[in-house]
TrEMBL record:
This is Acyl-CoA thioesterase. InterPro entries: 4-hydroxybenzoyl-CoA_TE, HotDog_dom_sf. One of its GO terms (molecular function) is fatty acyl-CoA hydrolase activity. Signal peptide: none annotated. It comes from the Bacteria. CDD domains: 4HBT. It holds the Pfam family 4HBT_2. It comes from Psychroserpens burtonensis.
Length: 129
């Protein structure tokens, strides 16, 4: 299993009325790290032929993040079959090591030519194994 990581620092515009990170930011970060991992591992040629769409998303909140916290985001593929791939994202407070959020998202692999689901080719699947 290949793990891709990113760090970020919580900013004021990411806070809610309770002064901790708004739930929508976690969803944004899950989407953003998935896109960054795809862009890093795939070629321009592959990205012109295929893209991903989110089918379902489950997130569990285990702790809060506050202004100025440095977060460590980790993502990896749990499994892929046919046109679907399930990606996990874990978000940690980097200073304390505490796990703040876990998520599993099912993504559908799409053909740019047809705008329909496409079976994930072996060479693409191998990019993340």
């Amino acid at each position: 299993m290949q793990i891709y990581e990113q760090e970020l620092t919580v900013t004021k515009d990411q806070l809610d009325l309770l002064n901790h990170v708004n739930n929508i930011e976690y969803v944004r970060w899950v989407q953003d790290i998935a896109a960054a991992h795809w862009t890093l591992k795939s070629t321009q040629e592959i990205r012109l032929k295929y893209f991903w769409v989110m089918m379902s998303h489950h997130i569990q909140y285990k702790g809060e993040a506050l202004l100025g916290d440095t977060l460590l985001l980790k993502t990896f593929i749990l499994h892929s079959k046919g046109a679907k791939s399930t990606r996990a994202v874990e978000i940690f407070n980097k200073t304390t090591g505490k796990l703040l959020t876990t998520s599993e998202t099912v993504w559908c692999f799409m053909s740019s030519d047809t705008n329909k689901p496409a079976r994930i080719p072996e060479d693409v699947a191998n990019l993340f194994s």
